[in-house]
Every structure is written in structure tokens, then in C-alpha cells.
Specification:
By secondary structure, the protein is α/β, with parallel strands linked by helices. It is 28% helix and 28% strand. It has a domain of 151 residues: 3-Layer(aba) Sandwich (Rossmann fold), CATH 3.40.50. Helix 6 links the parallel strand 6 and strand 7.
Length: 222
């Protein structure tokens, strides 16, 4: 697909906010401002930039997607990010979510396991959110070097939260993810760590693939 002009992208960005976010319960002015100003097209692979503002997940290959704007915006809104909080973003993909979280004043460590996605994220983050620390490694293992985190934001679906990840969350910290139940639609959920355990509250339904390392192995059936 051909790239659009800067003016066309700016109009598409405004339409995304007005027609996708505002009508779908995104009310946080900070989130709306960031989605309305951050150039999402810089975080989309070159062949897909014309689809940057569509109301759908953008397939990035190998069962990975860039979450639809409304889904990501509501996840971030439900995260209730506060200025200065430390966040581990798991499954950073091409970096757009990390840039939004950094724009909210968070200290973001963005973890990605796929080298090609990290390569796309690196220059985009350098241009828009240089404070983000982009690291590469296993999503299930997290990034203990910067722990504990106030928020672990899983940018996709997970069948479970690995112990290695939950152990990196501060007491009273939050986990945000798409809770995935095989064979059914997913639901964004926010979990709070209390006395070492996570207690989740569902927020809204959505569709997202399970991230690498966060899927349960299929049970053998006789």
C-alpha cells in the first residue's frame, strides 16, 4: 500500500480519535491527546502504513498484531497510569504502546522477543519516545533487572501470568492484559497484587492473539 501525505495522516489521526475512541468510552483526556498527536504510522511496517488508523488489529506476522486503537486506548485508560510509575511492557511489538505509556510520564521498559519487531520499534521510539528502554528477550521471563514494577502491561493476550513475571510486580502493583480463554473471545482484565497473589477484574471484551510464551500447553485427551 502507498503511504499517505502528512496532512492525510493528521486527518486520519483526528478521525480515529473522534470516531473510534470517543464513542467507545475512552474519556481520559491525556490518552485522547496522545492518540491524537502521536504519529502511529511511524510504528507500522512500511507496507502497511496506509492502514495505521483503521479500526482493526494490524497483522505483523507470526501470530503477532498491532492492537486496534480503541482496544489499546481503553487498556491504557483502565491501567490508570500515574506520572513516574515504572512499567514493564511485555510484547512491545513495534513500540507504539510504549510511546503512549511514556507520554503519560511513565518510566517504560519495553520487552520484545521478536528481533524484526524490535528493529521496527527502535527508530520509531528514538523519534517519539527516547526515554523508553527497549530490551529483547523472553516475554515469559520478563526483565528482572529493572524490577519491581508498578505496572506490568501485557500488550496482547495471555492464558496465564508466569510466576517469573508476577514476581517482578510490586505489592499493590497492577497487571493489565487480554485474558484469553481458549475457544472464546478475550477480555481485557486488570489484576492487583496483594499478599503475593493477583486478583483480576474484567473490563471489556476484545480479540487478540496469545503472545509467545504466554499460552498454556494443550492437555492430552484420550
Amino acid at each position: 500500500m502507498m503511504s499517505l501525505s502528512p496532512e492525510a495522516y493528521a486527518l486520519a489521526r483526528k478521525m480515529m480519535v473522534d470516531s473510534q475512541l470517543r464513542p467507545n468510552k475512552v474519556m481520559d483526556a491525556r490518552v485522547l491527546d496522545l492518540f491524537g498527536s502521536l504519529p502511529r504510522e511511524r510504528f507500522v511496517p512500511a507496507a502497511l502504513t496506509a492502514r495505521a488508523y483503521t479500526d482493526e488489529n494490524i497483522r505483523l506476522g507470526a501470530d503477532r498484531v498491532m492492537l486496534a486503537p480503541m482496544v489499546l486506548a481503553r487498556m491504557i485508560q483502565d491501567s490508570a497510569i500515574q506520572d513516574g510509575e515504572k512499567i514493564l511492557l511485555v510484547g512491545a511489538g513495534t513500540g507504539y504502546g510504549a510511546a503512549v505509556l511514556a507520554g503519560l510520564g511513565a518510566q517504560v521498559t519495553a520487552l520484545e522477543s521478536d528481533a524484526s519487531l524490535a528493529a521496527t520499534a527502535r527508530p520509531a521510539l528514538a523519534e517519539t519516545a527516547a526515554s523508553v528502554k527497549l530490551v529483547q528477550g523472553s516475554l515469559a521471563a520478563g526483565w528482572a533487572a529493572q524490577a519491581p514494577y508498578d505496572v506490568i502491561f501485557i500488550e496482547g493476550a495471555a492464558d496465564f501470568v508466569p510466576e517469573a513475571l508476577s514476581a517482578q510486580l510490586a505489592e499493590s502493583g497492577r497487571v493489565v492484559l487480554v485474558s484469553h480463554d481458549r475457544g472464546r473471545i478475550g477480555a481485557v482484565a486488570v489484576g492487583v497484587r496483594s499478599a503475593g497473589a493477583l486478583s483480576f477484574s474484567p473490563k471489556f471484551d476484545c480479540v487478540a492473539p496469545v503472545l509467545p510464551g504466554l499460552a498454556r500447553e494443550a492437555a492430552f485427551v484420550f
